[in-house]
Amino acid sequence: MHQSYHGSIEVVCGPMFSGKTEELIRRVKRAQIAKQRVQIFKPAIDVRYHEEDVVSHSSQAIKSEPVEKAVDILIRLKDSTRVVAIDEIQFFDENIITVVTKLAARGYRVICAGLDLDYRAVPFGPMPRLLAIADEVMKIHAICTVCGAPATRSQRLSKSKEQFLLGETDAYEARCRGHFHYDDAEEQGLLPLNEEIKTVAGELRN
Ligand code: ADP
Ligand code: MG
Q1: Ligand in closest contact with the CA of 42
Q2: Mode of pairing for the β-strands spanning 38-43 and 53-55
Q3: Which of 26, 152, 160, 184 is the most buried (most CB within 10 A)?
Q4: Four-way CATH pick for 8-141: 3.40.50.2300, 2.170.120.30, 3.40.50.1100, 3.40.50.300
Q5: Is residue 88 among the annotated active site residues?
Q6: Residues lining ligand 1, judged by CB closer than 6 Å?
Q7: Position 196 pLDDT exceeds 80
Q8: What pTM did the predictor assign?
Q9: Above pLDDT 90, what percent of the chain?
């Protein structure tokens, strides 16, 4: 599947605490065992745990290159690199789509990890298009902090409306669909169910 002469785009997505970074590190380590040169990037905005390392919530860590913009990944690429891993990819601008497409076309294996949904459970930045162009997608779950069921959403515990609020354990919790709530009903456009069904049916007919 991962022969060096084929480029590919792999995406690992899910909510916070689902193990995206652990999975990225696992794939990177296996590529290194196969003696493939790996470069690991993360957006410079993500300095929660360490300026340069990619760090998981279980404290696994690996050296990375923080970059300001998607295009910086192309600029910093080394000749010997075969595998490009990008963590917290949801924070990049839309140019990330062009960048990973070019890398795959040039034969690189691209491993991406990122949040599929933001704190409102709305698709995060470039993720919808990234998931669409991916060769392989892994959607992983965390554990709901309320009931222990598989969690697909990141519950923000503060009232901030900043999409880029960087969080740790005290700012977010993993939640299942039933225990996730985002209260701004107006922004979310929530109607009573029977009205919502009529509205959706009407929209689909038009
Ligand atoms: P992500 O990159 O998706 O945020 P990490 O790879 O950094 O996730 O961390 C995953 C680890 O987080 C798990 O292996 C576990 O040790 C820890 N963890 C803490 N809270 C939870 C939770 N609610 N559900 C699952 N794992 C959790
Ligand atoms: Mg992570």
Answers
A1: 2
A2: unpaired
A3: 152
A4: 3.40.50.300
A5: yes
A6: 14, 16-22, 56-58, 142-143, 145, 174
A7: no
A8: 0.87
A9: 70
